[in-house]
Amino acid sequence: MTSKGTGVSIIGVGMTQFGECWDKGLRELMAEAGVKAIIDAGVDGPDIDAVYGGNMSGGRLSGQEHIGALISDQSGLTPIPATRVEAACASGGLALRQAILSIMAGEHDIVIAGGVEKMNDVGMSQVTTTLGGAADTDWEAAFGATFPALYAMMAKRHMHEYGTTEEQMAAVAVKNHENGAKNPYAQYPFEITIEKVMKSSPIATPLKLFDCSPVTDGAAAVILARDDVAKKYSDSPIKILSSAQASDALALHDRASLTELRAAKFAAKKAYDRAGVTSKDIDLAEVHDCFTIAEILAIEDLGFFPKGQGGPASAEGKTKRTGEIPINTSGGLKACGHPVGATGIKQAVEISWQLRGEAGGRQLENPEIGLSHNVGGSGATCVVHIYSK
Amino acid sequence: MTSKGTGVSIIGVGMTQFGECWDKGLRELMAEAGVKAIIDAGVDGPDIDAVYGGNMSGGRLSGQEHIGALISDQSGLTPIPATRVEAACASGGLALRQAILSIMAGEHDIVIAGGVEKMNDVGMSQVTTTLGGAADTDWEAAFGATFPALYAMMAKRHMHEYGTTEEQMAAVAVKNHENGAKNPYAQYPFEITIEKVMKSSPIATPLKLFDCSPVTDGAAAVILARDDVAKKYSDSPIKILSSAQASDALALHDRASLTELRAAKFAAKKAYDRAGVTSKDIDLAEVHDCFTIAEILAIEDLGFFPKGQGGPASAEGKTKRTGEIPINTSGGLKACGHPVGATGIKQAVEISWQLRGEAGGRQLENPEIGLSHNVGGSGATCVVHIYSK
Question: What chain B residue is nearest to A56 in terms of C-alpha separation?
């Protein structure tokens, strides 16, 4: 990649309602988001050269693997190449990245990158067990560590080292619901209070119910094109300035720190360097707030706030739409919902809407550069993308 | 891709013993194959820029998703990008392809592409149910169609249309066991007879036990490098001339024909065109013989034999090591084994060994161009690669 960017732009976006979609399965959700993105882009099906789909748990939650072919089949896009990528909760972001790389390789001109997860057709215990497979099954899940328990340990350590408080974490949830209340696609489009978060049921101390993102069905899709092709379809393509990805140990006990995600810091540094920008240039970011503590880690790892200052910054409103750096205008995973494989793509959809000025009641004032930060598991994968008008 | 090839070469290969590996899990298998490939290439770990891993069923068979990070973690390769791709039984071939594209994109110089499956830690009924997720769960598996049943329908139709016989299908298994007997990595390194196949237990008529590939644990890995980088590490890099992928309907009833795989024909045509060769130029091929009928379809779809002649050609010995076009010198999925996500990579390993003259007792006489053909599900994905010395 050069400092001019990836040479790839987003020319169309679409997403389904996020929530409990009892009347739709994996294929209906994915096709709905894909068709919306195709219509938004104004491309014809035969113009699309390939499909990349992010999905974590089709196998365990719906009995369906081979998700790439499922998408091309259901969407009438065969015989084009269709590839599923999986990196737990970062599956969507990685699908976006592989799609970008396939265009950079000269292999494709126009690619659809989608993400989908169908989580509500099974019982909650099965969902919890399945999500445990995003962390280290042999060394964490097998000993009873659920996903909230892992993030609870990170939260405890952050509180110990930096004095972060439960109220500061609660402020993340309150802010994200404030944004989600203005997002018609959000699973929970209503506001909440600090008191409501603090009094919600304990899940894994110090995390309470309203510190946790929900179990969600949903899908999202973007249409990508090489820059010169993009101009034929759109007067307002969103340029992807950079794409960067990094990995880390699956298990928390193998990491040097519990209070930062090394993969996020690596990916962010590379993404900034390649885009030729710094954290100060970012006008808005969609970050991976699977738990409130995760957003605090994210805004520190991305360099928006000094280490240890993510909690106070959140409590002081610096991440609101009116603050220094608006975070999760979509409502984030917390209020918009977290259909695991779709989340990374939904982030790109929200950034695109904001940069195009189409974000409705939650529209920021003329943002120019956006960033998305998508985390897999408890931080073993992170992928960062930077976008501009 | 230009007619000069992809610009990417294989500089190292490795695989584990295929079989029932009771003392090794997903991570141990993958790391063993990866380390063998790294040693074979003579690269240092820090020289590797990214990991691509093919795996179908880590989630359902081992409770572990997030397989990319698992590989980079276990192999000490963090923080490099690590990505899992899944397309059922074509997961390995797609991992190879995505790794190639990432180098073509200018994103990476040296990449490890691996595949792994751990299938024997659960009961056979769970394996059968899980493999059903490679086909259409809602419209095939839900109505009781197992994977052998789908291929049995294809076999029946091929018998009806072209007069293919059960003995001709048996000849495929006999030939693959003949090759597998000379492969020290094979799960079943012994010869069998037509009579033994014909008298084996019925699985889904007309397919019998010895028409079916087995349930296998195993892993395989290749190290890929951009051509100019490859020269620094190897005097005998294997050039990847082309990579092509296609998709088709997941369910058999949505396809125009039961006696050919449209995705295979599309991918093969593109792979031949890009490599600037025809089927006549291929000196050996590893094809996807998950069932004996699948090899017959493959050698027809790839253009080695006219439609309907795959059965007689197999019975007449034209696909033996001494025949017109040696097919599955490794022993194929049938005798070498079929650890689902590893198979596509194992095919590249075998082709590399043959082109390097390192295939031991099954070595062909100075082959120059090889082809691999990796199928997902009952044909909804196919990926074809062409290699040369």
Answer: B65
Asked if B194 contacts B170 with a C-beta cutoff of 8 angstroms, the reply is yes
* Token representation of residue A102: 């396939």
Annotated active-site residue in A21, A89, A212, A290: A89
Domain final residue pick, A170, A205, A238 = A238
Question: Is A7 within 8 Å of chain B by CB?
Answer: no
Q: List the domain range (segments joined by +) for residue B366.
A: 135-214+241-388
Question: Scanning every residue of chain A, which has its alpha carbon at the shortest distance from the alpha carbon of B261?
Answer: A79
In whole angstroms, give the CA distance from residue B180 to residue B11. 24
Indicate whether A1 pLDDT > 50. no
Percent of chain A with pLDDT over 90: 98
C-alpha–C-alpha distance, residues B327 and B210, integer Å? 18
Q: How confident is the model at residue B386, as a pLDDT?
A: 98
For residue B246, is it within any domain? yes
Convert the pLDDT of each residue in A314-351 to its tens digit. Answer: 999 999 999 999 999 999 999 999 999 999 999 999 99
Q: From the list B69, B79, B250, which residue is nearest A87 (CB)? A: B69
The helix or strand, by DSSP H or E, that contains position B85, with its residue range, turns out to be strand B82-86
Q: How far apart are CA B257 and CA B154, in angstroms?
A: 9
- Identity (one letter) of the amino acid at A341? G
Residue A1 to chain B, least CA–CA distance (Å): 7
Predicted TM-score of the model (pTM): 0.97
DSSP assigned state of B225: E
For chain B, which residues score pLDDT lower than 70?
1-4
Picking from A25, A133, A254, the nearest residue to B64 by CB comes out as A133
Do A88 and B65 count as a contact with CB atoms less than 8 A apart?
Answer: yes
Q: Which of B62, B65, B257, B374 to mutate to test the interface with A (most CBs of A within 10 A)?
A: B65
Amino acid at A102: S
List B158, B338, B373, B385, catalytic entry: B338
Q: How buried is residue B123: exposed, middle or buried, by Cβ count under 10 Å (0-12/13-18/19+)?
A: exposed
Beta bridge partners of B222: B13, B113
Chain B CB contacts of A132 under 8 Å are 63
Mean pLDDT is lowest, of A83-97, A123-137, B170-184, for A123-137
Beta strands in A91-169 (DSSP E): 110-117
* A51-69 pLDDT tens trace: 999 999 999 999 999 999 9
Residues of A in contact with B129 (CB under 8 A): 63
For B8, the token pair is 């990417």
Nearest to A294 by CA among A142, A173, A387, A124: A173
**B361: CATH:** 3.40.47.10
Is A338 catalytic? The answer is yes
Give contacts of B 14-33 with A, CB under 8 A: 25, 27
Torsion angle (degrees, nearest 10) of CA A352, A356, A362, A364? 110
Same domain, A44 and A174: no
Within 10 angstroms of residue B200's Cβ, the number of other Cβ atoms is: 17
Q: What is the tally of structural domains in chain A?
A: 2
